[in-house]
Inverse folding.
DNA sequence: CTTGACGTAGAACACCTGTTCGCCTAATAT
DNA sequence: ATATTAGGCGAACAGGTGTTCTACGTCAAG
């Protein structure tokens, strides 16, 4: 066998990884299959494809299928360095409807997204955004056109500002949530308004508000 | 002519640049010609090629000829830096005081600044930010702790949301401003509240609100 | 009007590119 | 000994991809 395992990588796989890293650092774009073939000294494109699949299984690479230059080294540090997050706007908040949740399609849609400075959303990753329509969120100090950046979660801690859907009223709102036994206290952001109480069974937590953006 | 020059870029060229930047920030690789075509709403690949040549001449792009995904924004570092603006937080809004204006010292101070995605503040450059203390801005739908990003200016257009200082009351607030003869109509952002009128001589416009950020 | 520079549009071309298929070799397991 | 698995190879295919060519339209200057 011609393999010299490094970790669990064969010799060819190691050469491919090295070449991709070298290529990316020189060219800022990933190489094509045939560039890998020649650069890493692989005999055929099918062999490159073969090794790439193995490296993908080993979680060392990400690939965009059927896309040129679709191989990317998995480099979480680099992603972390990125200063701007693209947050998909997956829908709208309307008081009489549940808050939309992100799905795969919406995530892929590059048209509707807001860019948020990473420093605004400390480390949170899986975010989505909602556009507020109308003035039904006025007691959350949120007006028509505002963008609410949310983190998907079904449970929140005391004092979190969350999107809650009140099943008995068929209404979604943004409130600060406090657990009080079997009830929840929902407190409007507007301090001039009074909190009210609901049975925990009639409430669905749909996400936590991470930040609010208002373009003027 | 369908062009609306922005700087020295035509409308199409601007859309292409925006799309490429968006695409790169989301996908880590540059788009193909046809992805640009559809993403930027260009009618044909030849048109994309045509515009790309122009953008290359304008030194905004680098291209690898005859190579897939061979278009790269010039000086990625700079573009990367520019995707986030550092806006200095120069002070606080307190209803009983004039809104602070940025000075050289404050601008140098890198400690107190917020990062704002450039796409949030379309092109504006000389911005400063204020932190809202207390709930005096409740009628502007702004609560304690919010960050208001401002653009310094002394005159605003009808409907702009501006920081105004009422000299006769010795009070600063954020209101939408409408010129009505010698008076100004000041309209709270909260639609449930009534506008009121002041003599233009008793008002100092201190800046225009560009966006509002609320970390939760 | 003519001309020339610019912008637009569609199609075609030639090459690039990821993928797959069939066949091979060698080592290991049954 | 046979089957199985992993690694390897070349060729071909289908669609992606950058490029170029032709034709058309607009507008301002000569």
């Amino acid at each position: 066998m011609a393999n010299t395992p490094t970790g669990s990588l064969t010799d060819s796989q190691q050469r491919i990884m090295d070449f991709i890293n070298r290529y990316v650092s020189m060219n800022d774009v990933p190489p094509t299959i045939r560039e890998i073939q020649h650069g890493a000294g692989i005999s055929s494109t099918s062999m490159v494809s073969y090794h790439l699949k193995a490296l993908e299984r080993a979680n060392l690479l990400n690939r965009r299928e059927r896309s040129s230059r679709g191989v990317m080294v998995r480099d979480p540090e680099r992603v972390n360095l990125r200063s701007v997050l693209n947050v998909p706007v997956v829908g709208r908040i309307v008081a009489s409807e549940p808050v939309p949740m992100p799905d795969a399609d919406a995530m892929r849609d590059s048209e509707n997204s807001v860019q948020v400075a990473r420093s605004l959303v400390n480390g949170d990753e899986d975010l989505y955004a909602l556009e507020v329509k109308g003035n039904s969120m006025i007691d959350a100090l949120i007006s028509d056109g505002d963008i609410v950046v949310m983190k998907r979660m079904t449970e929140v801690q005391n004092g979190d500002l969350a999107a809650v859907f009140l099943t008995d009223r068929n209404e979604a709102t943004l409130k600060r949530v406090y657990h009080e036994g079997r009830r929840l206290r929902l407190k409007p952001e507007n301090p001039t308004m009074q909190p009210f109480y609901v049975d925990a069974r009639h409430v669905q937590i749909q996400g936590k508000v991470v930040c609010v953006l208002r373009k003027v």
Residues 1-3, 10, 12, 42-47, 50-51, 66-68 of chain A lie near DNA strand D (CB under 10 Å from a C1'). The interface with chain B takes residues 27-30, 32, 64, 68-69, 72, 82-84, 86, 110, 113-120, 135, 138, 141-143, 160-161, 189-192, 208-216 of chain A (CB under 8 Å). Chain A has two domains: 11-78, 82-213.
